Amino acid sequence: xxxxxxxxxxxxxxxxxxxxxxxxxxxxxxxxxxxxxxxxxxxxxxxxxxxxxxxxxxxxxxxxxxxxxxxxxxxxxxxxxxxxxxxxxxxxxxxxxxxxxxxxxxxxxxxxxxxxxxxxxxxxxxxxxxxxxxxxxxxxxxxxxxxxxxxxxxxxxxxxxxxxxxxxxxxxxxxxxxxxxxxxxxxxxxxxxxxxxxxxxxxxxxxxxxxxxxxxxxxxxxxxxxxxxxxxxxxxxxxxxxxxxxxxxxxxxxxxxxxxxxxxxxxxxxxxxxxxxxxxxxxxxxxxxxxxxxxxxxxxxxxxxxxxxxxxxxxxxxxxxxxxxxxxxxxxxxxxxxxxxxxxxxxxxxxxxxxxxxxxxxxxxxxxxxxxxxxxxxxxxxxxxxxxxxxxxxxxxxxxxxxxxxxxxxxxxxxxxxxxxxxxxxxxxxxxxxxxxxxxxxxxxxxxxxxxxxxxxxxxxxxxxxxxxxxxxxxxxxxxxxxxxxxxxxxxxxxxxxxxxxxxxxxxxxxxxxxxxxxxxxxxxxxxxxxxxxxxxxxxxxxxxxxxxxxxxxxxxxxxxxxxxxxxxxxxxxxxxxxxxxxxxxxxxxxxxxxxxxxxxxxxxxxxxxxxxxxxxxxxxxxxxxxxxxxxxxxxxxxxxxxxxxxxxxxxxxxxxxxxxxxxxxxxxxxxxxxxxxxxxxxxxxxxxxxxxxxxxxxxxxxxxxxxxxxxxxxxxxxxxxxxxxxxxxxxxxxxxxxxxxxxxxxxxxxxxxxxxxxxxxxxxxxxxxxxxxxxxxxxxxxxxxxxxxxxxxxxxxxxxxxxxxxxxxxxxxxxxxxxxxxxxxxxxxxxxxxxxxxxxxxxxxxxxxxxxxxxxxxxxxxxxxxxxxxxxxxxxxxxxxxxxxxxxxxxxxxxxxxxxxxxxxxx
Amino acid sequence: xxxxxxxxxxxxxxxxxxxxxxxxxxxxxxxxxxxxxxxxxxxxxxxxxxxxxxxxxxxxxxxxxxxxxxxxxxxxxxxxxxxxxxxxxxxxxxxxxxxxxxxxxxxxxxxxxxxxxxx
Lengths: 908, 119
Known about the structure:
The structure holds two protein chains of two kinds.
Chain A: H1 2-16, H2 21-42, H3 46-57, H4 60-71, H5 74-92, H6 94-123, E1 134-140, H7 153-161, E2 165-179, E3 185-192, H8 196-200, E4 206-207, E5 219-225, H9 227-234, E6 244-247, E7 250-257, H10 269-272, E8 276-280, E9 299-304, H11 310-327, E10 339-344, H12 345-385, H13 387-395, H14 400-428, H15 430-434, H16 451-477, H17 481-486, H18 496-531, E11 542-548, H19 563-578, E12 583-590, E13 605-610, E14 622-628, H20 632-635, E15 640-643, E16 656-661, H21 662-668, E17 683-686, E18 698-704, E19 719-723, E20 731-738, H22 742-756, E21 762-767, H23 768-775, H24 777-811, H25 813-821, H26 826-858, H27 871-897, H28 901-907
Parallel strand pairs in A: 3-8, 5-7, 14-19, 16-18
Antiparallel strand pairs in A: 1-9, 1-10, 2-3, 2-6, 2-9, 4-7, 5-8, 6-7, 11-20, 11-21, 12-20, 13-14, 13-17, 15-18, 16-19, 17-18
Helix pairs in contact in A: 2-3, 5-14, 6-12, 6-14, 6-16, 12-16, 12-18, 12-24, 14-16, 18-24, 18-26, 18-27, 19-22, 24-27, 25-28, 26-27
Chain B: H1 9-27, E1 30-31, H2 32-43, H3 54-64, E2 67-73, E3 79-85, H4 87-115
Antiparallel strand pairs in B: 1-3, 2-3
Helix pairs in contact in B: 1-3, 1-4
């Protein structure tokens, strides 16, 4: 209580700068006067009386200081004093200060940049209320190795009634043709259950969303649109509600508009920019009757009951699954071992990117560490030069803690200024930097410098400043006063500990740089190998232009319902495309056949029944299918190995044909004794989507060589290609090969296409090379970043060596001068200094190797085609580092060599 | 008779504060010099030198609210700052006096027990 009162009085004194010093002076003067009087009356002479009085009173300055300490806040005053002095010191050596601030800015800026990406992507992946309640449901048949087989309508109803979830919704992402505006447009849309927005927990800004318990079997007549679509296509029309749209030739009405900042959840950026949502029960026309075993290959998302943890929910879900299996044994054969697995939605969205981001953060943290070590080194070097100043201060009575706090304030000031500069640069350059981030990164739009990120930057700066400023401060304030004051400002025995520390720091820096460089080297080689891998197809000079045919709810209104109807359209468009100047060949396929350019939804495994092999009750294997025109294989440069490709004679009314690749032949017709069966001529039976079985058998007519059309890292995924003139597809891609201008080709193809059917949209014209490049974009980004960090680390390490050797030469300048005077060869001096540099480099490399081996082992999962212990990379990096070390030591070595012994010895 | 000179500063500060309060209690309002003389006389060597250390202590006591000060006229009509005990100070003095006496009694008993032989 008393302490608090004192503190408050001191605080107010400090704030108002009131000083009781004058009062003290008066009191002391009075005290002395009285004492002198008494001394005089006791018989002393006046001079003696005054002297005795002073002695009795004690040290006046000490009294004043104690008095002052009592009436104000010495801690805060000292802090301000230290700050003022620190600022003066900073301004006195501007070059040094700038280098330090720049180094810190680099380290903190880079770390903060990566952290902001992590903050937006991993830490806050879902911008919806109570994101931890949102889960994704996946049904699996582990017994036959099938994953994500989808959910049927009766199962959906069971889930909704189970009490585990507040709401459950199916969702299917696709595109629709929007007609009625100036140009037919293709918009990304989702077909969902009416409870979808209840699952997300978001309401419309205008109008409303559907009743979550709506039980309409088919498509509801009302749709919800995004704010972006509202502004783009309808000019933010205030009377949008109730307006009718034609989507794939079906009529709908706008019921609500989503808020401006709203983004749908999804793994691709296309899904996240969904412009329209339509709801359906999925068991009326045109959907098949809702049988338990008719599973939809849709995504299922749900919101858990509040307070229910995912683990507890999974337990209850398992119980539900078990009871359903008992109730309907016919629909859940025990061989399949049907289960439903729930994963938090956030996890599914960022899971793939997490590894890359953590790697990046590790790399950038190393850079930060290196720059801090560099700065600590510089601070130590400069602090040695201030040995005299410290000694004088201590001799005058400064406590060691005061000295340490002084030096700590100086380094904290530098670090905080560096941190602020780094964040400021980041802020100004953010638009420029965001260009480099790959499009596929989730939450791209939300990467910004938020308060959390700013706080991170401050914490990092202060922590780094404290840690890396404390050691130099501690060491500098520990002095042998006599030695320091007498003569030696530079390097004597007393500073040996300091030199050892500085050498250790440089070695640490070198080791860290080595680790970074090896990581970068491995990633670079990995990327290069991936880039150079044999594709199996030829993407050069091919452009793919996408379009989509309308998919109305009522099949009788669909003019492209049968294969023959669609074939007419396709043949005509292909013919017209061939007339475009520069075009040599054309082809068409469905979207799933675009090499490396299709998303998850486009390609789902279809059950494959091989004649004579699969009995009806077994769960058949799943195979990726796509539908192509006969010219496709030639346009893409895929080689035929056996049999034949499609010909014009294959049509809807002739036997169905298919072409498979080598991997499919190997996996599904393995034959005996290692010799494969010839699959040409074998017949298979493919179940189409939505459980509609095709009544006819399909004959395999040809085998093509494997091509990396699914993923560059995967050599052979089994594929089966069907003839587009036999099985129609709605989402198409037209290919043109030749000397075409990618910018103009889209308009040219659109003209030709719309000459046949004016209501078909054309979008996304990309060269296949571009498609290839974007599939690599995340890897490329990681690689570029790590390489950048490695280069920075190398630069910093080089600077570190240069600084250390420079300082060593300075310290040893007397020794060197004496040696030269006694007749040593200058080249010997050069060699001596270089040797010191090389020793440091060797030590750094040795330590770094160990670290590098550990890190590369951890990184093994990200590498392709190169071993984590690749000799070439390790050797190459060592050579580079050694070269840099020699180069950095060379300049100080030259300086040492050119010392004039006479001037040097005189100067001391 | 002399108090041990090697006391730690904070112990000395604590006892010095008590002495100041008691002095003001007995003598009434006093200036700094008067308090110093009185303590020197009674306690012997404690405040024989470094009498100036009294002033920061007086400021501390004033901030704590135990004493109050104002300018006044000293014996020879000079301007001096007079300190007096406040109500809070008086209460604090009483409490601390009681604590000291208790402590002293316990220690004394301890020494007595040592002299006798316990059965």
